[in-house]
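We emphasize that the prediction below concerns an isolated chain of 338 residues; any contacts that depend on oligomerization or on bound cofactors are therefore not represented. The input was used exactly as deposited, without trimming of termini.
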Amino acid sequence: MKYNNLNFNGKTILITGGSGFIGSNLAFYFQNNFPESNIVIFDCFRTKEVLDNGNLKSFGHYLNLIDFKGHIICGDLNKKDDLEALNNFSFDYIFHHAAISDTRVKDQDIILRTNLNSFYDVLELAKRNRSILVYASSAAVYGSLDSPQCIGNEKPDSPYGFSKYMMDQVAGNFSKKHSKMTIVGLRFFNVYGPNEFFKETTSSMVIQLGIQLLAGKSPRLFENSDRIFRDFIHIDDVVKANILACSPKKNGVFNVGLGKSRSFKDISDILQSELGTNLEVDYFPNPYNSYQMNTLADLTQSKESLGFDPKISLEEGIKSYVPEIKRIYNLIKDDQSK
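Result of the prediction step, given as a token string:
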């Protein structure tokens, strides 16, 4: 499905973080819809290296790229020598999704070096190539502010959220200085869908609860989960936002959510209905002292400047996702039986 009239055939497209969740979906969008496009993925694939909270430093996985036919450059944004490999191409479009995206990481130095310092290099690359640049910001810039979350009212409360907030400031200043460039930031809310499994504990509640239910386990939710709301958006609508961002009415940063809040309990109920289960919810105390209780994207500017109008409801998104969740569960079960 094509989301606008742009023709990417014959164009060279860079996707940083292309072995991750959003990046890999974006790569296959171009491959499937524009087979004459030249797609280059630059990513730091996973190793055993972990961060201060015990999670992996990189969630990139080769299994997200099975059947990918483009170029892959295994590299680290923090290493200038790795970035040099990108000078062998002339990019028409750059989609910058590489980042440490774990909101619970406390190591400020590694977050800011990876997310913010490297962004200057990406901006310079886009400038040299006269590329259209679309980059991943995050709803984490809003911290625990009350919903709806609106552009211009930010208060990050994590190193990750701060790194994305500063990226937005850097992009805004760079855009003013180089007014002929197209630079758009997208603040993603709670994204779910195929290829997120390798994010492990940072993957969405949809796949985590789905696997629990398929294993015959009661879905585990925080106490009062019927009062914890998130703006859940399907990956297809997120890819759509990336494509629309290539031809904005103006540069800037824009929210990418569904524009509707749903509870964690809603996810459990929808999954139980789709999977034909009726297991009692296992409620446990929320271990976090500071916890956002409600996210809701204000899409006013996204609709005006990008023409972004997400269509996939939580019910529709989960229904379409269930076959993939079942496939992942069967792989897990087969692996455990070996």
